[in-house]
Amino acid sequence: MCHQTSMAFELLGWYRRAGRNLPWRETRDPYRIWVSEIMLQQTRVETVKGYYEQFLKLFPTVAALAEAPQEEVLKAWEGLGYYSRARNLQKAAQGMVANHGSGFPERYEDLLRLPGVGAYTAGAIASIAFGERVPAIDGNVYRVAARVYGIREDIGAAGTQRRLRTLMMESLPGEMTGDYNQALMELGASVCVPGIPKCGDCPWMKRCDAYAEKDAHLLPVHMKKSSPKRIDVAVCLLTFQKQVLVARRHQRMLHGLYVFYLIETETQAKAVEELLSEQGFSCRYQASLGAARHVFTHRIWEMALLHYEFVKAPSPALLSQLHARLVTKEELTALPFPTAMRAARERAIDLLM
Questions:
Q1: pLDDT tens by residue, 114-162
Q2: Of 194, 218, 242, at which residue does a domain stop?
Q3: Contacts 24+ apart (CB under 8 A), 324-328
Q4: 279: which DSSP letter?
Q5: Together in a domain, 66 and 180
């Protein structure tokens, strides 16, 4: 048995014994695999388990997802974060319905053309659903590969990633590629973890360069990234007769989701009231409702939650210009909001009781 075949045999045997029982591992349906892989980007497995089946009940097919109102899709995604994933899912589904009659692309190269699908996701779907011999390399797999093969250059560098991709392509078995890719992901998620790995549980311990060199805890190498930018944000809860003003985001960040009226860089109540007046709102400051913090990938919102009451209702023209509207407590609960607005929405619901 050759070296690479032996490695695959060892890993697959370990996976059959130790792999977690996850709902998306019980199917070869490309749609269900696709939904799970998109949800698992930037999100913990335990969190995804709570959303996966419910999302598929609401949108059981590509066609159902394509035809759903975007607000319903975003509402089903609420709490998972990184909402561009949900928008891209629906956009890709709509493209499949238009171009493939709801059929799913079967080749890696065709899957790469779907919005929101990169090399990892395309590799996962192509190998698991269709048996194509392609790697699926996520952050977990990059970490495993860097340690096994002793790669001590910056893991974020394009050249390092190309080298690791070549090594992982060479490691693929001729059959059961989907299982092998899932086994690698599982190894990285449960054994070859960040920091100090559980080397004693690893089927590749005796083949691992980092284990032999005793520097697994130092790999992979990450060059230091710049810190997220801190931004002060006033979250204005603007109420009028048991209603609160919300606006639908048209900016790229949080696009399609609802937020309260936001003012960046100023959080002092009086100054915010003056800015609201300049922007056409006739309102009076009522109270501070506390603070909240949300960390995005490249920025941190330090939020002051401020309650203002309209002296008179804003004009329909102003609301239209701002993509805003006044909503009741029931409407507020039904609309899709980002996690960043969770604390503010709880305060708003209390105000509207």
A1: 999 999 999 999 999 999 999 999 999 999 999 999 999 999 999 999 9
A2: 218
A3: 324/245, 324/246, 324/247, 324/248, 324/261, 325/245, 325/246, 325/247, 326/240, 326/243, 326/244, 326/245, 326/246, 327/243, 327/244, 327/245, 327/246, 328/242, 328/243, 328/352
A4: T
A5: yes
Per-residue pLDDT of 160-173, as tens digits, reads 999 999 999 999 99
Residue 51's nearest CA partner among 28, 74, 27, 21 is: 74
CA dihedral 55, 74, 127, 99 (to 10 degrees): 110
Residue 223 domain-assigned (yes or no): no
The reported pLDDT for the residue numbered 1 is 46
3-state secondary structure of 37: helix
Task: Single out the catalytic residue among 10, 37, 46, 106.
Answer: 37
pLDDT digits (tens, 9 = 90+) for 8-38: 999 999 999 999 999 999 999 999 999 999 9
Q: Are 22 and 39 in contact (CB under 8 A)?
A: no
26 labelled catalytic: no
SS3 content of the chain, % helix, strand, coil (to 5): 50, 15, 35
My answer on whether 36 and 175 are in the same domain is yes
pTM of the predicted structure, to 2 decimals: 0.84
Q: Which of 284, 292, 285, 237 is nearest to 263 (CA)?
A: 237
Tokens 């409407």 label which residue? 331
Domain boundary among 169, 193, 218: 218
Q: The CATH number of the domain where 47 resides is what?
A: 1.10.340.30
Q: What is the pLDDT of residue 5?
A: 76
